[in-house]
Design goal:
7-stranded mixed sheet, 12 helices, single chain, flat, Jelly Rolls, about 725 residues
C-alpha cells in the first residue's frame, strides 16, 4: 500500500484517512496546449487536529499571530517516506462548524509554478540588479556600434550585452555613392562633405541572454542551459530594443540631467564667513540671524533654452526652492535680480559647524552650450536693515553642457512584465519548463521528448475493466503571429501581399466545428531593408530597421525583438556626431535581422512563416514553425492521433521514477504521456496517453505543407529616389 506524507517547512501534516488526495502532472494538456510554467497542483482538506492547528498557528483565530497565509510555504511530498515532489503549500481557508475549526483547505503547487508566483506583475524595469550606466554621446555610441558593452553578473560575463544597432527612430536612411550633399541621411562614406547617420537616431539594445541572467540573479532562479545557451545562436543572438517612448532617446520632457559641476572659478570675494559658504556646486547659508538674498546672472548663446533650478537641502530633507525657464539673449541675463528679493532659507544656527541649509543650484538644458553663471549673495545686518548690505560675496563659474547625458539600462526598458517577456520566448520556441534538482529545465518540446529514452511497460498494472479511446480535439484554424506588426515596412508588406510579415494562418476546411489554435507573441516584428546603392553600382552590406508607422511618424509599438548580426570589414558608412556634426567612417557595425545569421541560408529565423531573408534575398526556410512546431502540430491534427485513457495500479518504483518525457508501453503499443493523475487514497493512477502517429493523413499533411510553405523571395525596399514595381524587388 502506498501512503502519502506531507511536510510544511519541515513539520509533518496529518491527513484525513478518507481524503481523496490526488496529484496531477501534466506537461501540456492536449485540450489546452498553451499551458506553461506549471508542473502540478492540487487542492485538498486536512483535519483541524492538534498537530495541524500547531502547524497553521490556529489561523482561524485572528488574535493568534504566526502563520502568514498571504505567502506560500515550502513543502515536500513523500510516498512511503521516500521523496516524491517538492513544492509550496498555500492555505486557502479554514472550514468552521459551531465556531470550531474542522478542516484546513490547502493547495499544493509544484515547483515550476513558483516562477509565476514570484514574478507576479513585476516588469522588466524591476530588474534593479542591472546597474549598467549608459552614456549617450557621440563617442560612446560610435564605440558601441563597433563593440558593445561587456557586462557581468557574478562570474557570468556577457559580451556585447548592450549594443547600438542600425535602427532609426525617425528618419529614413539611404545609400548613394554618387551624392555628396551635406546634411542628408545618405550614409555612403564617399565624398568629403558631412552626411550620414546621426548618432541621435539610434537607441541601444540589450542581449536577451543578459536579461535571463538578470532574472536568475534577481529572483534566485536557476535555468538550465539546454536552450538558454551561449552556443545556441537561435537564442543567444536575440536582442530587445531599449525604447520606452517614441522618437528621441531622452527624458520624456526633453531635458538632460542637471549640471552640477562648476569649472574655472574666476573670482570670489566678501567676508570670510561668506567665502566659506561657497561649495563646489551649492551655497551653504550659514547665518547668525542675518538675512541673505541671492542674485544670479547667466550668459549663454542666443536662443538657448534652459531651466535654472535651486533646491533647498538641510542634508536631511531636500525640497524645491526656485525654478525658472529662460531663453538666452546672448548677453548677460539677470535671472534673479536684487529687486526680486529671493531670500535664502535660514539654517539651524551653529556658528562653528557647517550644519544648515544648502542651496543646490543647477542649470538644466538639452542644448550643447557653455553657460557662464554669476552668483552674488548679499547679507544684511537685520531684516529691518534690508536696504543696507553689509557683506557681499560673488562667484563666477562655467557650466559646460555637451550632447551627452547619462541613463541606465533599466531606465530605458520597454513597458513589459517579466512574465509576459518569458512567456513570449516560450511561445516563440515552443519551450517546456519543468523543475528538477533545483533547476528549471528549459527545452523545446521536441527536445523534451528526445531527452528521455526511458520506456515503462505497464501492461501488467493496467485495469482492463475500463478504458477509453477518443479523438484529439481538432482545430479548424491554426495561426502563429506577432502582436506588433505595424512598422512602415511591415505594414506595407501586408498591403502588398495581404499577409502579416512573419506570420502564418491556415484554415482546416473539413473541420468546421473545431477550435482555434493561435499563438501570439507580445513583441514587435519588423521587416528590414538592405540598402541598395541608389546612385551607383556598389553593393552595401548595410541592413537597417525603421521604427516609424505607415505615415512615417515615430512609432513605439510592442517591445521590439530581433537578431543582431555584427558586420566586420563591411561597406564604410558615415556616422555623424549630430545631424550637422562631424563624420566618422565605420566598417564594423551591428545590423538588425530576422535571422540569427543573415549571411547563412540555414540560419534560424524568428518568422513563423517562410519569408525571404532581407539581407540575401534568398529563402529563409528555418522558421519558428518548421523548427519548433511542425512535428507537434502535425501529430496533433493528424486523423490517426487518439487520446487513450487508462486506469492503472502502478507500483511505487514506477510512480517515483516515471517522468512526463518518458514513454509508456501497453500491450506492445507505444504512447507519449499527456497527463498522470494519482489518487493516494486508493492507489489508482489515471493515465492520459497519446499514441505515436505512424501513418500521416494526406489531407492534414497538405495543411501542414501550406503552413510550411517555401518562402517568396520578393522583397520590399525603400529609398528616397525612385518608385518602381516589378516581379523581383519592389521599391516604394
Amino acid at each position: 500500500m502506498i501512503q502519502l506524507q506531507l511536510y510544511i517547512e519541515g513539520e509533518q501534516v496529518e491527513l484525513h484517512d478518507n481524503e481523496s488526495v490526488t496529484l496531477t502532472q501534466s506537461l501540456q494538456d492536449v485540450l489546452d496546449l498553451q499551458k506553461i510554467f506549471t508542473d502540478f497542483s492540487r487542492t485538498f482538506n486536512v483535519p483541524a487536529s492538534k498537530v495541524n492547528n500547531k502547524v497553521f498557528k490556529h489561523f482561524y483565530n485572528p488574535s493568534i499571530q504566526g502563520f502568514d497565509a498571504r505567502s506560500k510555504k515550502e513543502s515536500k511530498l513523500y510516498l512511503n517516506y521516500k521523496p516524491f515532489k517538492s513544492g509550496k503549500i498555500k492555505l486557502e481557508s479554514v472550514q468552521m462548524k459551531d465556531n470550531s475549526p474542522i478542516n484546513y483547505r490547502i493547495t499544493f503547487f509544484g515547483k515550476t509554478i513558483e516562477l509565476t508566483d514570484v514574478l507576479g506583475k513585476d516588469k522588466l524595469s524591476s530588474l534593479t540588479n542591472i546597474t549598467a550606466i549608459l552614456k549617450y554621446d557621440a563617442t560612446t555610441i560610435k564605440s558601441r556600434m563597433v563593440s558593445g558593452y561587456e557586462l557581468s553578473f557574478g562570474t557570468t560575463t556577457v559580451s556585447d550585452a548592450v549594443i547600438y544597432p542600425i535602427v532609426t527612430h525617425t528618419n529614413r536612411l539611404v545609400y548613394n555613392s554618387t551624392d555628396d550633399t551635406a546634411g542628408t541621411y545618405n550614409i555612403s562614406a564617399n565624398g568629403t562633405n558631412n552626411h550620414g547617420l546621426p548618432v541621435n537616431e539610434l537607441k541601444p539594445a540589450v542581449r536577451i541572454h543578459f536579461l535571463i541572467k538578470a532574472i536568475e540573479d534577481r529572483y534566485g532562479f536557476k535555468f538550465s542551459t539546454d536552450f538558454f545557451n551561449v552556443n545556441n545562436p537561435a537564442y543567444y543572438n536575440l536582442y530587445l530594443w531599449l525604447s520606452k517612448q517614441k522618437g528621441k532617446f531622452e527624458q520624456e520632457d526633453g531635458n538632460r540631467p542637471a549640471l552640477t559641476t562648476i569649472r574655472n572659478v574666476l573670482s570670489i570675494g566678501g567676508e570670510n564667513e561668506l567665502k566659506r559658504g561657497f561649495q563646489d556646486h551649492h551655497f551653504v547659508n550659514r547665518t547668525r540671524n542675518k538675512p541673505r538674498i541671492i542674485i544670479i546672472k547667466v550668459q549663454a548663446p542666443v536662443g538657448t533654452k534652459y531651466t535654472l533650478k535651486i533646491v533647498s537641502n538641510d542634508f536631511r530633507n531636500p525640497s524645491p526652492f526656485y525654478e525658472s525657464t529662460q531663453t538666452a539673449t546672448g548677453g548677460t541675463d539677470i535671472v534673479i535680480s536684487q529687486e526680486d528679493k529671493l531670500f535664502l532659507e535660514t539654517a539651524s544656527d551653529n556658528a562653528n559647524t557647517w550644519e544648515g541649509n544648502a542651496h543646490a543650484i543647477s542649470i538644466i538644458t538639452n542644448t550643447a552650450a557653455t553657460f557662464t553663471m554669476t552668483q552674488t549673495v548679499i547679507e544684511f545686518s537685520s531684516i529691518t536693515a534690508e536696504g543696507n548690505g553689509i557683506a557681499q560675496a560673488t562667484r563666477v563659474g562655467e557650466y559646460i553642457q555637451d550632447v551627452a547625458y547619462t541613463t541606465t539600462v533599466i531606465n530605458e526598458m520597454p513597458d513589459m512584465e517579466i512574465l509576459t517577456f518569458l512567456t513570449g520566448l516560450f511561445k516563440a520556441f515552443n519551450l517546456t519548463a519543468y523543475y528538477e534538482d533545483d533547476t528549471i529545465n528549459i527545452l523545446p518540446l521536441d527536445s523534451f521528448y528526445a531527452s528521455s529514452t526511458e520506456t515503462f511497460d505497464i501492461t501488467q498494472y493496467i485495469d482492463t475493466t475500463t478504458s477509453e479511446v477518443s479523438s484529439v480535439l481538432p482545430y479548424n484554424r491554426i495561426a502563429f503571429e506577432y502582436e506588433g506588426n505595424e512598422t512602415f515596412f511591415s505594414a506595407f508588406h501586408k498591403q502588398i501581399f495581404d499577409s502579416k510579415w512573419g506570420s502564418i494562418s491556415e484554415t482546416v476546411e473539413d473541420v468546421p466545428e473545431g477550435e482555434d489554435y493561435i499563438i501570439k507573441l507580445p513583441f514587435e516584428h519588423q521587416k528590414f531593408e538592405r540598402l541598395l546603392d541608389s546612385g551607383g553600382s556598389e553593393t552595401p552590406t548595410v541592413q537597417w530597421g525603421w521604427s516609424v508607422d505607415d505615415g512615417q511618424e515615430s512609432y513605439l509599438g510592442k517591445p521590439f525583438l530581433f537578431y543582431a548580426h555584427k558586420i566586420t570589414s563591411g561597406t564604410p558608412i558615415n556616422v555623424l556626431d549630430s545631424p550637422a556634426g562631424a563624420k566618422t567612417a565605420l566598417t564594423t557595425y551591428f545590423i538588425p535581422s530576422n535571422l540569427a545569421d543573415p549571411t547563412t541560408a540555414t540560419s534560424q529565423s524568428i518568422h513563423f512563416g517562410q519569408e525571404a531573408n532581407e539581407f540575401t534575398a534568398t529563402n529563409a526556410n528555418n522558421s519558428l514553425f518548421n523548427t519548433y512546431y511542425k512535428n507537434y502540430i502535425t501529430e496533433s491534427v493528424n486523423s490517426s492521433r487518439r487520446l487513450f485513457k487508462f486506469a492503472a495500479f502502478l507500483p511505487l518504483k514506477v510512480i517515483l521514477n516515471i517522468k512526463l518525457q518518458d514513454k509508456v508501453i501497453i500491450f506492445n503499443d507505444l504512447y507519449k504521456i499527456n497527463k498522470i493523475v494519482t489518487n493516494f487514497e486508493n492507489g489508482k493512477t489515471q493515465l492520459e496517453l497519446l499514441n505515436e502517429v505512424i501513418n500521416f493523413d494526406v489531407e492534414f499533411d497538405e495543411v501542414i505543407g501550406r503552413l510550411a510553405k517555401t518562402a517568396d523571395v520578393t522583397l520590399i525596399t525603400a529609398d528616397t529616389t525612385r518608385t518602381t514595381a516589378d516581379a523581383g524587388d519592389r521599391r516604394i
